[in-house]
Amino acid sequence: MDLTGFRSLAEPWLDTTSAHGKLIFDMFASLAEYERSRLSERTKAGLAAAKARGRLGGRPRSMTPGKLETAKQLRNEGKTLKETAERLSVSVSSLTRALSRNDVPEVASAAA
What is the residue range of 104's domain? Predict the structure, then answer.
């Protein structure tokens, strides 16, 4: 025998201590679970459709291919990471990450 239940003072129909109230409560819980599943399906379908159109999620990268080429040139000229980052208006960490992601060897000394 279940001695616990929920009885709302504001909504008289919400009373899990009775069979009728428990049925209604369970129906609402099932509908909420169904809607949550449908939302997840729609979200996944939308992300897949966006990916198929070539769209990527998240924030755009600060290092564009053009900036990366400029960074390579500046580093080959002997510019430091800090000087290169300032010239490209990016942070030193973004520059370092982009260079390592693109297998660019360390040419100049890193004076950050």
Answer: 59-112
